Amino acid sequence: MDKRLLTIQDISCVGQCSLTVALPIISACGIETAILPSSVLSNHTAAGFSGWTFTDLTGDMPKILERWLTEKIDFDAFYTGYVSAAQIPHIKEIMAKAARSGALKIVDPAMADNGKLYAGFGEDFPAEMKKLVEGADVILPNLTEAALLLGESYHGDDYDKNYIETTAKKLHALGAKNVILTGVSFERGKLGVASYDGVETSYYFAEKQPISCHGTGDVYASAFAGALLRGWGLEKAAALAADFVVESIKATMGDSDHWYGVKFEKALPYLINRLESHSVVQKASA
Questions:
Q1: What is the pTM assigned to this prediction?
Q2: Which of 21, 28, 182, 282 has the smallest CB count inside 10 Å?
Q3: Following DSSP, what letter does each residue of 178-204 receive, concatenated?
């Protein structure tokens, strides 16, 4: 039976983030991708747009689950992104009732960046997000989100390897089996991730690009989820996702009109080729 992943997060109709990123990227990885929108926005809420529409879909979640259970629809994996506090109990119920045996839970605690919570989240939201982190197979926080989950101060760029590894262990202690900290850097010109599996921390760094783009966290988490479901190990999936983000940013540079996201579509052939090359090597060595 082919693997089926359910991703639960908002739809920002324009802006290359959330479900408009997750659905095509995970599908390109060869994984059947089902979606459960947490809300619908006309466009994302980052600077550049003057406003947006917003429709909350919390009330639909229990009705959708009821229909799925009636139809005997279930999933090999769950990947959550931007959701509200009120939706977390519904999401946990979906994960409990619509899971195939051994289903993975991948949680991107999308709530903050650069030391600040996203607009619309109150100071009490990190405590609610911890309820999704507990029991997750993998969590993918950036350093701001990690600090908020732990109730600690954000360090900005002022940290060392000991801080990263201590933070990863503390997050693991919250109940996550594996931790991937994104946006880690120890030297100028390098940016990457720290992966902790409960035993040791490993690192992967790529060349830091000269521009920052909206939505790269969603691009990263989606590529990671797709690779993981394709059978890649934690470290290799984390590295591939980082490389894919770099390729997506490179495809975007030089186009000043494309300020609202990354042209990940242009980098999909790169992602597919990497995945297929890995499959060929695996078959040859079997």
A1: 0.96
A2: 282
A3: EEEEEEE-SSTTEEEEEEE-SS-EEEE
